[in-house]
Write a structure and sequence with these properties.
alpha+beta; Fructose-1,6-Bisphosphatase, Chain A, domain 1; D-Maltodextrin-Binding Protein, domain 2; five-stranded mixed β-sheet; globular
């Protein structure tokens, strides 16, 4: 792997002496280095010690686990001193000022899927870098202000998925050298894959149009889509996103009728937006079912949003179902025997 291109070499070539891009290069490098340290912490973390530590509830209603708080503090410390006007973290109610005159802002979920550590499943860090004019980010349109995004995927291998607006690229950590190396070629989402990812345990809470789509997937060759599908779901957003990037298909986390789930659970600023950039730069699409994610404005720092992303054709197919365009007036599979909740 020593002959491969390092993350630093990739970023230096991309920046090519441009001062603004060089700053983004520094921010990404710092996040990657902090991710290496976090990966070690995850591997060596003592669950019994975590249980003895205190959790915290923040104003957005989430409960921060001890390991999430450790990850938050790690990234806050790592980014200190960089020209970042503010850091918006999933683990903190308000934006954290770092260097108020700074021209950039960072939004981050320091450790997505922290509860997975108890079952030894994948975790991740999701981040986004924005242009900042010292404002509070509210009302900004994501597509025009997001300069780079990525996620660190702590699984059997640690990987960094990154876009600086010129494709979506993949880097693999060599733990012996503590260095990320680029894997060949930009990622491009395969088309025509027959996989969908959704938590079907919430089926009864979904809008009937969405259930219509899932029923047609489950019906396979006998359904309106005429194809046999596989379902995937593991509760780790970065793992779901990575699989979509390399295998194709579609991921859905819709809003539903449960209290506080009308707009789903994922956050626009540090979940949907960075993933949408990565997915679109890899030839895919990301939507809330009605609007392109990157066309949306930020109503609040921790605003939730339904999220659908994946292969462009599959995402558009789901949107047609949700809007009712795909309905045939004589074909309503929710009322047929093959419905998910019917015998």
């Amino acid at each position: 792997m020593s002959a491969a291109i390092t993350l630093q070499q990739f970023l230096a070539t991309w920046a090519q002496g441009n001062p603004a891009d060089a700053t983004i290069e520094s921010i990404v490098s710092v996040i990657a280095d902090a991710g290496i340290r976090l990966g070690k912490l995850i591997v060596t973390h003592d669950l019994s010690r975590q249980e003895a530590m205190e959790s915290a509830t923040i104003a957005n209603g989430d409960i921060s686990q001890p390991l999430e708080l450790l990850a938050h503090n790690l990234f806050v410390s790592a980014l200190a001193g960089l020209p970042i006007s503010m850091l918006v973290s999933a683990e903190h109610n308000d934006p954290l000022p770092i260097d108020p005159p700074g021209r950039f802002a960072v939004a981050i979920d320091p450790l997505d899927g922290a509860t997975n550590i108890a079952t030894n499943l994948s975790l991740g860090t999701i981040f986004s870098i924005f242009a900042s004019n010292g404002d509070d980010l509210l009302g900004m349109q994501l597509g025009s202000r997001q300069l780079a995004s990525g996620f660190l995927y702590y699984g059997p291998q640690t990987r960094l998925i990154l876009s600086c607006g010129e494709g979506t690229h993949q880097f693999l950590l060599d733990p012996a050298r503590e260095q990320f190396y680029q894997l060949a070629g930009p990622l491009w989402i395969p088309a025509g894959k027959h996989e969908f990812a959704i938590n079907t345990a919430n089926y009864r809470f979904w809008d009937s149009n969405l259930r219509h789509f899932i029923d047609d997937c489950i019906a396979g060759e006998d359904g309106a889509l005429g194809e046999n599908f596989n379902m995937r779901w593991n509760g780790s957003l970065v793992a779901e996103a990575f699989r979509i990037l390399v295998r194709g298909g579609v991921f859905l986390y819709p809003g539903d009728s449960r209290a506080n789930y009308h707009n789903g659970r994922l956050r626009l600023l540090y979940h949907a937006a960075p993933l949408a950039m990565l997915i679109e730069q890899a030839g895919g699409a990301a939507s809330d079912g009605n609007e392109r994610i990157l066309d949306m404005s930020v109503p609040s720092l921790h605003a939730r949003v339904p999220l659908i992303f994946g292969c462009k054709d599959r995402v558009h197919e789901v949107i047609e179902y949700i809007s009712g365009v795909a309905f045939d007036s004589g074909h309503f599979p929710l009322f047929l025997n093959r419905g998910l909740l019917r015998n």
